[in-house]
Design brief:
Layout lengths: L2 H21 L6 E10 L7 H10 L5 E6 L3 E6 L4 E7 L5 H10 L6 H5 L4 E10 L3 H17 L5 E4 L4 E4 H14 L11
Antiparallel strand pairs: 1-5, 1-6, 2-3, 3-4, 4-5, 6-7
Helix pairs in contact: 2-5, 5-6
Length: 189
């Protein structure tokens, strides 16, 4: 296991624990959908700008918002908990490099992502039987972060999937406006 995978594991475990403590209720099996926005600058996203983009561009109403120094946590009306966490170091270059070599949708991925300096990990947790909805919320949250930062793309380590910002944003807009499913943003083919 690489250090980035271990960090992500602990982060997702923390998110699941945070969710269970915060809501202290018996709930069905939980699922975590997560990915990493790669940032070209060591500048944390502006949480208020992300929330404004979520509301105006991505049609997500955030409830129970908690903004800390480097994290933003909120709930959606659909029952998902979203955590957006800024990490002031790059994602593991061996992992993003391997994903870049596999990225047939983004031919210049290796050159563009090798320059990233920091990352934003986005995790969405909710009922496992609502996987499609959780992936949609993840896409909307990631799109809001992409819109409000300088990011070459997004990396989903579980699939070694690396997608450019432009492609991801276009797929997210198509999902919101035309009710399409952006499979190429979720699963490596």
């Amino acid at each position: 296991i690489g250090s980035a995978q271990l960090n992500r594991f602990f982060f997702c475990s923390f998110l699941a624990l945070f969710h269970s403590v915060l809501f202290a209720q018996k709930s069905p099996q939980q699922l975590v959908v997560s990915g990493t926005v790669l940032l070209n600058q060591k500048i944390a996203p502006d949480s208020k700008a992300v929330l404004a983009a979520l509301k105006s561009n991505w049609k997500i109403k955030a409830d129970s918002v908690n903004i800390a120094d480097k994290t933003l946590v909120f709930n959606t009306t659909g029952g998902a908990t979203v955590m957006v966490a800024y990490l002031d170091y790059p994602a593991a270059p061996d992992e993003t490099g391997a994903a870049a070599r596999l990225s047939w949708l983004w031919k210049t991925a290796a050159a563009e992502t090798s320059k990233h300096q920091a990352q934003v990990v986005i995790s969405v947790i909710g009922p496992a039987n609502r996987s499609l909805d959780l992936h949609k919320v993840f896409t909307q949250a990631a799109a809001a972060v992409l819109e409000t930062t300088k990011a070459p793309g997004i990396y989903m380590d579980g699939q070694y999937l690396l997608v450019s910002s432009g492609y991801f944003l276009a797929a997210a807009r198509n999902m919101v406006q035309n009710q399409t499913i952006p499979l190429y943003c979720w699963v490596y083919f």
